[in-house]
Amino acid sequence: MPSYPEFAGRVVAVTGAAQGIGAVTARAFAHERARVALLDIDASGAQAIAAEIVAAGGRALAVHTDVTDEKSVAAAIAGTVAEFGGLDVLVNCAGGYGRLATVEDMPLDEWDRTIALNLRSVFLMSRAAIPHLKKSKAGRIISVASISGRTVTAASSPAYGSAKAAVIQLTRFLAQQLGPDGITANAIAPITTLTPRVKALRTEEDIARIAAQVPLRRLAVSEDHSNAMLFLASDAASYINGVVLDVNGGRVMM
Questions:
Q1: Angle between helices 121-133 and 70-84 in degrees, nearest 10
Q2: Predicted confidence (pLDDT) per residue in 4-58, tens digit
Q3: pLDDT digits (tens, 9 = 90+) for 180-237
Q4: Residue 30 · residue 58 · CB < 8 Å
Q5: Most CB contacts within 10 A, which of 6, 89, 132, 218?
Q6: In which region does residue 158 sit, left (phi positive, over 0), alpha (psi from -120 to 50) or beta (all else)?
Q7: Which pTM does this prediction carry?
């Protein structure tokens, strides 16, 4: 695994950091000696990951955050900056959906909740972070989209797929508008990943079926995605802007 000494002392805020890809990503940045703020509505879960990082010699702050609420987001960013003195990297990892669904059987409130969690959150977090990222010499916004936002062959939720496709377009707007300030904005598009949420939603048969469709013949693990995000946040990726990195084992090639 590559080493990124430039992360030492940089401040990274990760949403959805209490579990899954977000938790693994927070640990990965902390391992590279970044100071990490773990933002999640699951306060106890975020605190547990933060305590684990601190026990290993890192610096971490758990911040109870509702990423769909403007005031909560503003307070989380303000608290992160107050604790660490600035912000260099924002990782928009919070997201998900409650069930496999169709357009026909989806109530409006489920649609709205899913769009808010996956799209509104990226807008609110990015907007709040931008003034602080402009003060950084290595400002980065990295958002987690999905294979469901790249193709309709991956069954999930129409609201989730629509929101993740919009995250990709929002990423392009951020890249275009913030490039003059030296800030890059990129996204990754994961395939179905063996997280606790996915294991709860999918049967063993589902997982085997999806894995059989991947040229690498396995589903992703969270580390596959955290490794991609470490690279996009690194100095080596300073000229990569407005891209979507498909981390899907070759399931979809675009």
A1: 30
A2: 999 999 999 999 999 999 999 999 999 999 999 999 999 999 999 999 999 999 9
A3: 999 999 999 999 888 777 777 778 888 888 889 999 998 899 999 999 999 999 999 9
A4: yes
A5: 89
A6: alpha
A7: 0.94
Which of 4, 97, 160, 239 is labelled catalytic?
A: 160
Q: For residues 37 and 11, give the distance between their C-alpha atoms in angstroms, rounded to a whole number.
A: 8
239 is catalytic: no
